[in-house]
Amino acid sequence: MNKILLRGRLKGDQIRHLSRLLDMYYTPTEIAHEIGCTQRQFYRVYLPIGCPNTREDNGRVWINGTEFRNWYLDIYKKIRLKPDEVYCLACKRIVKFQNPESRKKGSYVYGLATCPLCGKNVSRAITNKREKNDQSQQQTIS
Q1: What percent of the chain is helix, strand and coil (3-state, nearest 5)?
Q2: Model confidence over 44-69: pLDDT tens digits?
């Protein structure tokens, strides 16, 4: 089964702020301020897993903005699940979606199964089609 790297994952706005980074050297504090995370995240997560950086003799760390952006987007790729896979929130892994039981709540249809590794319930959306509202499609004549 696949293990997903969760530590250090940025949120949507923070990922969009990566495009602000220029081809120049930043300190971890400057780059963290630019993308909206903490300096601590750089020292505890990114540098230990191989973030491209340069260290001076006195220990100061410099990170190139475009190299960091390319490295981050390569390490934390968007994950697409196959139709027979589901993400287990308890195991933090992608598991096979075996023998799903179809359930419906309003117009939301989902499948419910048991994780083969930990035994917890896992679910996956099947469809969420809303019924069309006839009033919104009619044009009012005034």
Answers
A1: 30, 25, 45
A2: 999 999 999 999 999 999 999 999 99
* β partners of residue 96: 85
Is 50 exceeded by the pLDDT of residue 142?
no
- Which tokens hold the place of 89? 């929130």
pTM summary value = 0.67
Whether the CB-CB separation of 109 and 126 falls below 8 Å is answered with yes
Pairing of strands 54-55, 25-26: unpaired
CATH of 10-75 among 1.10.3470, 3.30.420, 2.20.28, 1.10.10: 1.10.10
Could you tell me the residue ranges of all domains in the chain?
10-75, 85-130
User: Looking at residue 42, what DSSP letter applies?
Assistant: I
Distances (CA, A) of 24 to 41, 48, 68, 114, 135: 20, 22, 11, 49, 55
Q: Is the pLDDT of residue 79 over 60?
A: yes
Instruction: Convert the pLDDT of each residue in 16-31 to its tens digit.
Output: 999 999 999 999 999 9
Q: How many CA within 13 A on the CB side of residue 6?
A: 8
